[in-house]
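haha ok so turns out i had the wrong file open the whole time. this is the CORRECT one, sorry everyone. sequence first:
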Amino acid sequence: MSKSKRDVNRKWLWYFLGAIAAFQLYFVRELLAAFALFILVFAAFGSVIATVYMFHKIWEAGVLRLVKSRHPWLITARHAVSSIEDYARRPLRRPGSQPTSA
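then structure:
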């Protein structure tokens, strides 16, 4: 084995021993545990946000497909909604009628 190869191996051995010594310290274990919890919470929030976004896009595509549909049942439903909206816009009393007396 060449001397430079031995030096590289010795360097990595010291890194490994330093890492083992660092893991034995309490605060290093606490920091790693906090980091692991942070990763779990971040992944949970990310999953919830991605799921909500996916459901929103699916809903949007479904509504767009429904709006573009020319099915007779949907056309009838649109006409019904339109007539209900027209009826709702009408005033409750005739214009110029006397107010009710209490």
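The chain has three helices and no strands.
again sry for the mixup
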